[in-house]
Amino acid sequence: MWDRFTEPARLAIYQAQQAAIEEGDPFVGPDHLMLGLIADSKSEASQQLERIGVPPANIRALVSKEAAETKPAVEDLKLTSSGKRCIDRAYDVSRRLHHDWIGPEHLLAGILENAEKQKDHRFREANLTCARVLEDIAHGGGIWPPPPTQTIVPHTPPEAQKSGCAPTSFAMAFALFSVNTTFGSSGLSAFSQMSVMQILCFAAFWFAWQARHSQLGYAALIAIFIAGWTQVTLCVGVYEMLFGHG
User: Fold this and answer.
1) Which of 2, 125, 167, 171 has an alpha carbon within 20 to 30 A of 118's alpha carbon?
2) pTM of the predicted model, to two decimals?
3) Contacts of residue 167, Cβ cutoff 8 Å, sequence gap at least 6
4) Which residues is 28 bridged to in the sheet?
């Protein structure tokens, strides 16, 4: 679940667990997640609240409880159903923003979105809404890409960039098929035609592989099939040239 979380986001989850322990709760809920985000006045979420104009201390007062005398074991802590929904909404926010990481800004937006869905008006009354957080991200509050020290997984190019490889791979495969069907009748030597086919084959394979997970992935699969079939016939042709008359 936490593979895509940046280090600050993981720290916030840890702080949320500590907040639940301090309050004697055996589960980590949305309020604990919020406390984890703003546990440090210099945290990314605290700075984001300051930019929005909402003092973190005001939010802390909304979600804090008195410390409990009996505290649960750390290993027993699990997310409540609402806490899980906050995490799910953080993933959804990241997806809508076309980000491939989960940072404190996504967690904050997920918590607020969940509160609004659950008709919890505490944050709205404090002038803190999911829309304001998303607006802050859109205006540069959420940096893309995140600093290297905060990146958990390498950046994956947007789907739009990958989709452009699919038509190219299909065109390469079609050209490869055309050269293959006119083999021996184009006026070029067999060696020249095979060299052209080999280059087109590798190019079609490369572009198709780049586009395999894009929205035009089906075209890439067709290109891979055509290139693979042509590669087999090319190998057979080379074998026959070398050993067919032996």
Assistant:
1) 2
2) 0.55
3) 216, 219
4) 79
